[in-house]
Amino acid sequence: MKAHAGVKPRPFPRASARPASSGRIAAAFARAASENRAAFIPYLTAGDPDLETTAVLARVLEESGSDILELGVPFSDPIADGPVIQRAASRGLASETTLEKVLETAARIRRETSLALVLFTYLNPLLRFGFERAAREASAAGVDGVLVTDLPPEEAPAYQPLLRAGGLDTIFLVSPTSPSARMAAAGRLSSGFLYVVSRSGITGARTALAPELEQTVRRARRQASGLPLAVGFGISTPEAARQTALLAEGVVVGSALVRVAEQARAAGKSVSRAVGELSASLARACAKTGSPGEKRGATPGTPRPRRSMERR
Amino acid sequence: MPVSREKKRPGYFGEYGGRFAPETLMAPLEELGRAWSRFRRDPRFRAELDSLLRDYAGRPTPITVAENLTRQAGGARIVLKREDLLHTGAHKLNNSLGQVLLAKAMRKSRVVAETGAGQHGVATAAAAAKIGLPCVVYMGVVDMERQAPNVSRMKLLGAEVVGVDSGSRTLKDAINEAMRDWTENVRTTHYVLGSALGPHPYPTLVRELQSVIGKEARSQFRKLAGRDPHAAVACVGGGSNAIGLFSAYLSGSTKLFGVEAGGRGTGPGDHAARFSGGSVGVLHGTRTMLLQDAGGQVLPTHSVSAGLDYPAVGPEHAELARSGRAAYVRVDDADALRAFAALSRTEGIIPALESAHAVAFACQLASEMPRSASILVNLSGRGDKDLAEVERVLRGTQA
Ligand SMILES: Cc1ncc(COP(=O)(O)O)c(C=O)c1O
């Protein structure tokens, strides 16, 4: 894949023009851009296998170079997820992880880290909690943005304004199957960033990037009106992260991290260490220049230490 | 005037319905809606579907006056719409033939389906064999065990049957898995959803394909009785056989009754009675009545009949319940099993356990109505698939 010299990191006046939002997501992208790298955005299912682990892993992820944490709310019927995140959701439900408890943990992560926080959820738990209340309490807990997997733009008018009114960024998805008009609608409703689904499919670690990714990102870019683009679904290796970082402003990794935690736990090894190592190598691969794994020193303006945890 | 037609928002029945799907499925759902509105009016498509329904599936199915059952119930006359006589043994084929033909017209090279009782799986496998498309059917492993004959039938018909071992391992989880398959293969594959549920346009598409039941039954019943029935009764899993029957009577004065699975009790997880035990929620792409816990997690369900064992209901039924145009009642496992035996013995018709729920309620209703009244029951399927399960359950209750 060719490097995209033409795609410069942009300033993001749209996000900062919305005083209601915390601006933490926009700041995370701005900081990454100033360091000439894509933001690294790991995903964890909250409560997998318990919320204490989630809070600990959030710190590990920050230390290993993450910018934004996507915190998944477990749901009984995750139709957009592959087996890895399905299993994580089952473990989350087994440990009785309700939305209320996820928000408590979000508040703890907010105190213990400076990660931007995106709640990644299916619609029904929010509806049951009370959508307006969910928006208010998420915001109070220090959540910065919300992405609802099964809330497409046409169903959003009843819900998206409630999230914005709560001071939350709203993140919508575009997919390779989305025609331009759909991408534009998602762009209009989004703040913070626009989420580009890398391949038409469900979540799950893949070894290779989808061949159509470059084109999908290019089409999304035209409709994103300057919002940063974060690419996710299927990215599992530093090499895939490196290639994605050349296309987009953010790289999302979910299943690969969830799986490495699962495997470490099964083998009786340190979950923190396994997650830390993989995330550190993925975070390093988000540099927009140079070869994969190249070391990146802390640049002025970096608000927190980036400690490499990868052994070599 | 039909009360449940979509109002201003397409795909909505009042406040219910919609299209709450992941983005990857949205354009394909739009494409499906466009294709259906084109082909439903296409004379060649219509002719091909009508010919399949007549010469392959065996439509029209008759109506049968259940004289002996009527005598036993003691009251209103019970008349059966015989979808059990349709090829493959249930109403499901009406929908499968339409959708597989549509898949072919849309130049899809593969179909997937979910199945609970196995009837929709068998119907889709048969339609795919006849029309010439490869077919994969997802089925919960619990259902594979209790509807084993249908698993063999699907395989014989050339379908690949994939056991689903997640969640409650029943219909709900089979739908999850079929939707995931569709998401992964959306460019080549059509998802033949088996009931009037899911994201728009499925509830409307499936209703239209099943409305042949109501159209036929209405004119057959008028020929028989010179008027419409006082009541029409159908079991409600997702709601396709019920909406197929009800669609002919929405604007009349026939009382409409949907029968849900009362299972083994009223506690959470013991039944699939969405209208008495559920609340509004979103599952499988539609806003409807849903059995869920305080945190919005979908509850497990129980029914002796795999086809009614589902925690949500088609959105049009939710609206029919709200408006009061239809009433939804529950029949428990034991009463359904009694009706299963009663219809077999009195009429020589072995009903599907799903349909036995409707028969049970019709008998109760008949006993409360005068003999001059009449009740039309949709006998949605036949019970061959259920014989082993019924024996197992009866042995269990005796032990
Ligand atoms: C014979 C029969 N009747 C009814 C149903 C319930 O489905 P629906 O409510 O969509 O008619 C099924 C489902 O498998 C069935 O096999």
Kindly list the characteristics that best describe this protein.
A: 312 residues, alpha/beta, TIM Barrel, 12% strand, disordered N terminus, disordered C terminus, B: alpha/beta, Rossmann fold, 14 strands, binds pyridoxal-5'-phosphate
Q: Overall mean pLDDT score of chain A?
A: 89
What is the chains' assembly state?
A: heterodimer
Span between N and C termini of chain B?
53 Å
Total strands of chain B: 14
- The CATH C-level class name of chain A: Alpha Beta
Number of strands of chain A: 9
Under CATH, the topology of chain A can be stated as TIM Barrel
Tell me the CATH topology of the largest domain in chain B.
Rossmann fold
End-to-end Cα distance of chain A, whole Å, is: 27 Å
The portion of residues assigned to helices of chain B is 40-55%
User: What's the number of domains of chain B?
Assistant: 2
Q: List each distinct ligand once.
A: pyridoxal-5'-phosphate
Judging by the overall fold, what is the CATH architecture of chain A? Answer: Alpha-Beta Barrel
What is the strand and helix layout of this fold?
The complex is a heterodimer of chains A (312) and B (399).
Chain A: H1 13-16, H2 24-34, E1 39-45, H3 51-63, E2 68-72, H4 83-94, H5 99-112, E3 116-121, H6 123-129, H7 131-140, E4 145-148, H8 160-165, E5 169-170, E6 173-174, H9 180-189, E7 194-197, H10 213-223, E8 229-232, H11 238-245, E9 250-253, H12 255-266, H13 271-284
Parallel strand pairs in A: 1-2, 1-9, 2-3, 3-4, 4-5, 6-7, 7-8, 8-9
Helix pairs in contact in A: 3-5, 3-13, 5-7, 9-10, 11-13, 12-13
Chain B: E1 12-13, E2 16-17, H1 23-39, H2 43-56, E3 63-65, H3 67-73, E4 77-82, H4 92-105, E5 110-115, H5 119-131, E6 135-140, H6 141-146, H7 148-156, E7 160-164, H8 171-184, E8 189-192, H9 202-225, E9 231-235, H10 240-246, E10 255-263, H11 274-277, E11 279-283, E12 286-290, H12 315-323, E13 326-332, H13 333-347, H14 353-367, E14 374-379, H15 387-398
Parallel strand pairs in B: 4-14, 5-6, 5-8, 6-7, 9-10, 9-14, 10-13
Antiparallel strand pairs in B: 1-2, 3-4, 11-12
Helix pairs in contact in B: 2-4, 3-13, 3-14, 4-5, 4-9, 5-7, 9-10, 13-14
The structure holds pyridoxal-5'-phosphate.
